[in-house]
Specification:
Elements: E1 2-7, H1 12-27, E2 31-36, H2 44-53, E3 57-60, H3 69-86, E4 90-94, H4 96-109, E5 113-117, H5 131-145, E6 150-153, H6 156-162, E7 173-175, H7 183-186, E8 203-207, H8 216-223, E9 232-236, H9 242-251, E10 257-261, H10 266-272, E11 275-278, H11 287-295, E12 299-301, H12 307-310, E13 317-319, H13 325-336, H14 340-357, H15 360-374
Parallel strand pairs: 1-2, 1-4, 2-3, 4-5, 5-6, 6-7, 8-9, 8-11, 9-10, 11-12, 12-13
Length: 375
């Protein structure tokens, strides 16, 4: 099978997803090409080299996130040329910009069955888009839905959320949950870095890109709530933290928070912490929850897509009743009321759940099955 992936959003979980899928499909014997942008994160270059070394053909097409009529038109022409030369059986697009350009190239050339993974439809979440912008993005997705053979949801929850879009036929939706290799997290040795924290107080880790969807601001508000005065937080992930630092100072919790930025030792940092916190406003299937569970850590999360599917409350972690600071604080308090023995039991249950339901192999073979239906 010949598979072409197109992605502009080469950051965070979408980046991880593309690399894992492309390498997995190549290992199965498929001919795989990826067309990617490097504008979001230059560190993606290392992933590109890894893919090339393992047999994936990589083309750089520096698509931009927002509307850019001239460059979009030029990139569309280049994509058409790539399709005509490669002649893929499947054109698999990821997220919004690549979803438009990749599917349009396939429609124009009449090459390849079209599969699209939105990695959440961001226009469904009012916190991100104004009314006119939301209407525009919804209209664009509605148009291309007619020409898309399959939409891939990375969790059952996300598939249900697709229904809110109002234009996707249920029969076009396939659920293929994200999967991970648990080994790097299960075997990680705890970081011995000195954060200047009280070693006897609970240590919570939050891992994610710094932007509204990830809810770092909700985590800070929660830490200022009554009963959580001793909780310490490691905030890990790329992005501008200046507003969060000001917020932490204003809340009087700055001494209990460390903003570490992008790190390449996340497994070791997780091994150092007691709990993972996911205060997101929305998700599809958060990789970090799977990683923490693979480590054997209990997870405290908001009830967003993916998290409420993976986490079994009281067995592998805790879900907040609401997506706000008060709800996050309530869930953290519930987690901290448990004993270390309870945490260890939850950790073992989480490891088993990831091993049984969220492996790399199951993700790659799940996509294979989706493709096979279209050929």
């Amino acid at each position: 099978m010949r598979v072409l992936h197109v992605m502009e959003c080469t950051i965070g979980g979408t980046r991880r997803h593309l690399v894992d899928v492309a390498l997995g499909q190549c290992a199965l014997g498929h001919k795989v090409q990826v067309v990617v942008s490097t504008l979001r994160d230059e560190t993606f270059l290392s992933d590109m080299e890894r893919m090339r070394s393992e047999g994936v053909e990589v083309f750089v097409l520096n698509m931009v996130r927002g509307p850019a009529p001239l460059t979009d038109w030029l990139h569309l022409g280049r994509l058409k040329s790539i399709l005509r030369e490669f002649k893929p059986d499947i054109v698999h697009t990821h997220s919004s910009k690549a979803g438009v350009l990749g599917r349009q190239a396939s429609i124009s050339t009449k090459i390849g069955a079209r599969v699209h993974t939105p990695h959440t439809f961001s226009f469904l979440f009012e916190a991100l888009f104004s009314g006119p912008k939301r209407w525009l993005y919804r209209s664009i997705e509605r148009r291309y839905a007619k020409f898309t053979q399959r939409f891939v949801a990375v969790s059952r929850n996300e598939a249900e959320t697709f229904g809110r879009a109002g234009f996707i036929e249920p029969g076009k939706v396939a659920v293929v949950p994200n999967g991970i290799d648990p080994a790097p997290f299960a075997s990680a040795i705890a970081s011995d870095e000195d954060f200047g924290f009280d070693p006897t107080a609970p240590l919570v880790i939050l891992v994610g890109l710094v932007y509204a969807a990830k809810g770092q601001d909700l985590a800070l508000e929660a830490l200022a709530c009554e009963g959580l005065e001793r909780v310490q937080l490691l905030c890990v992930g790329p992005g501008d933290t200046s507003a969060l630092e000001v917020q932490a100072q204003a809340l009087g919790i700055a001494a209990r928070v460390r903003f570490l930025g992008a790190r390449d030792d996340v497994p070791a940092l997780m091994a150092r912490a007691d709990l993972l916190l996911l205060p997101s406003r929305w998700e599809g299937m958060p990789y970090v929850v799977l990683e923490a569970m693979a480590r054997g850590m209990p997870v405290v999360a908001t009830p967003v897509d993916g998290a409420r599917e993976v986490i079994v409350p009281g067995e592998t972690g805790f879900l907040s009743p609401t997506v706000d600071a008060r709800g996050v604080a309530e869930a953290l308090a519930a987690a901290l009321s448990k004993s270390p023995e309870d945490w260890a039991r939850m950790g073992r249950a989480g490891q088993q759940r990831v091993a049984e339901h969220y492996s790399l192999e199951s993700m790659v073979r799940g996509l294979d099955a989706v493709y096979a239906e279209l050929l």
